[in-house]
Amino acid sequence: MRKLIIISLYKKTIIFYQKKISIILFPLFLFFWTGYSQVGPGGITTQLNIWLKANDGIAAADGVIVNNWVDKSGVRVNNATNSGELSSPVYRTSGTKRINFNSTVEFDGINNGLNFGNDYVFTLAAQAGLNVFVVAKPDITSAAKTAPFVFDFGFYGDRGYGFAIGSHRSYGYTSIGNGGAEFFTTWAGTSEPNVYNYDVNFGTNKNIIINNLVRATTTISLVELDATRIDENSSHQVTSGPISIGRQSKSGNLTFSSDRAFDGLLGEIIHYSKNLSATETLKINSYLAIKYGITLNQTSPNNYLATNGTVIWDATTAGTYNKNIFGIGRDDSTALHQQISKSVNTDGIITISTDTNFTANNASHTAITTNLNYLLVADNGLNTQFDNHISGFALHHMNRIWKVQKMGSAITSVNLKLDNTDADYILLSTDAIFDNSDTKIPITTDAFLNIPLENNMYFTFGNSICYENGSTGTPVSGQNMIISTFDATASQSWIQSIDNGMLILGSKTKGFVITRMDSPETAIINPVEGMLVFDTDDQVMKLYDGTSWVIIKQRCY
After folding, report:
1. From the DSSP assignment, how many helices (H) and strands (E) are in the chain?
2. What end-to-end distance do the CA atoms of the chain give, in Å?
3. Nearest to residue 524, comparing CAs of 548, 489, 557?
4. Are 128 and 202 in contact (CB under 8 A)?
5. CA-to-CA separations, 546 to 37, 119, 528, 550, in angstroms, rounded
6. InterPro entries annotated for this entry (predicted)?
7. By CB distance 3.0 to 4.6 Å, which of 67, 185, 476, 557 could disulfide with 82?
8. Other CB atoms closer than 10 Å to residue 300's CB: what's the count?
């Protein structure tokens, strides 16, 4: 908040060298701004011009059209409204229409749009450039839809600038008639959510950066984007228009091949009229990545930063644990309070929550009590099979392992929900090697509750071994009662003897078939305890236990 000190000077008598001199000082007020702090993306507030976020600033229910999207930058006169638009986008707060449990605004890709009317943003040479950040999940569309604008201002493409995001590529342009240029990513694109950054550096170059990785770059001689280089208008005209969200600014050729309107979900749009430093950019990307469950590219190690500059995910020490980075955290200087999270990647399989609810919107969960507290996790990218035996535990653990990095002490435990239903335990370790000295916590109902995850801890999931352990003590060697279709050659791996073996069935080409009965409960007149049959009605194996026929169930230890 701002603190204002007012110093007031009034009439006062001052004596110099015994000579009385009266000096009249008329009321004078001196204003000093002694402190200034404002919430901004990544804590960066200087030259912030637009900040639209779907989770804050829309007064609508799920499925209701958005006619007013309140700007949170603190500097706009107007909000993004429906003024003069053909139709409005729709507010989404549930299911797959959310991005990491946060609300979105859905655009139809045809004629949805919002605009800022006569509230313009110009960027002068002294500001050196501009940056637009967008969190978007584009729908899969035709490759012919080449310019689905999420942001546009002025006359495309001679006197204006804009940024388009599609499922096949992204596109940007700046006032081509004044030394700007248009360019496309060579990246094939995706329908998963991503953090997009359109970075314009006057007189040198501009870049399209996706999840903190440069995907396209081109040189420009453009020195500024003032009113002479943008054809602005308070409404959509054939060759001019206002700052527009989700569509082309000008009205001319808007519906050309249904091309120039965004199709998909928008979570956040941020605009700066300045050349951001690498640290400022990383802070903003970190904020957006954590909030929306998006992994910043780790081709080269990319740290995540809190607003105070502290590293909250150290990519160097994480090593190979750099897949599906996500987590929860609170950082008041960027209005981040993520209380439930799951990686948006298709192979993200765990949800972390501050309480036992794993479905409600982010704001509905138990609060993190202290500012600047984070808990992030990432995995090694291996498959989710249970292939690793833990001696002494009678468990196999999952090949995929997660690593924890934590900042602050307010998050003492979390609740985890695993998509894979085969796990019986969560296993916690101080290193990446799991053995019988590590902590084993059983599943509660359908989740793992109150799990104490600490900094640099590793965890994975265990599955009970579903067969009897072998006999203990001195083996009785060479038992060889065998029914086999193998021959006696080594190439066929013929079983000659097995320690403690009683009856061995071995074949690579034959199956074992037992008696098949359509109703074993009545057809067998005198069943014997221990008798096995296959019930063709119920399609299960059944055993007679001396009293009744029971289904043979898997037994785990």
Report:
1. 3, 41
2. 59
3. 548
4. yes
5. 79, 85, 7, 10
6. DUF8202 (IPR058515)
7. 67
8. 8
pLDDT at 181 over 50: yes
User: DSSP label at 258?
Assistant: G
CA dist 135 and 194 (Å) reads 6
Would you call 51 exposed, middle or buried from its count of C-beta atoms within 10 A (0-12, 13-18, 19+)? buried
Do 471 and 414 meet the contact criterion of CB atoms below 8 Å apart?
no
Say how far apart CA 554 and CA 275 lie, in whole Å: 63
pLDDT tens for 317-341 read 999 999 999 999 999 999 999 999 9
**Cβ–Cβ < 8 Å for 404, 453:** yes
How does DSSP assign 133-184, residue by residue?
EEEEEEPP--TT----EEEEEEETTTEEEEEEE-SS-EEEEE-GGGT--EEE
Label the pairing between strands 159-165 and 48-53.
unpaired
Query: What is the average pLDDT across 120-134?
Result: 97
Please state the length of the chain.
557
d(CA 303, CA 316): 8
pTM attached to this predicted model: 0.80
- Residue 192 contacts residue 139 (beta carbons within 8 Å): no
Q: Is the pLDDT of residue 14 over 90?
A: no
The token duo for 171 is: 């596109």
- Is-cis flag, bond preceding 241, omega within 30? no
Taking the C-alpha atoms of residue 265 and residue 547, their distance in angstroms, rounded to an integer, is 61
Of 142, 146, 165, whose CA–CA distance to 265 is shortest?
165
pLDDT in tens, 201-217: 999 999 999 999 999 99
* DSSP, res 367: P
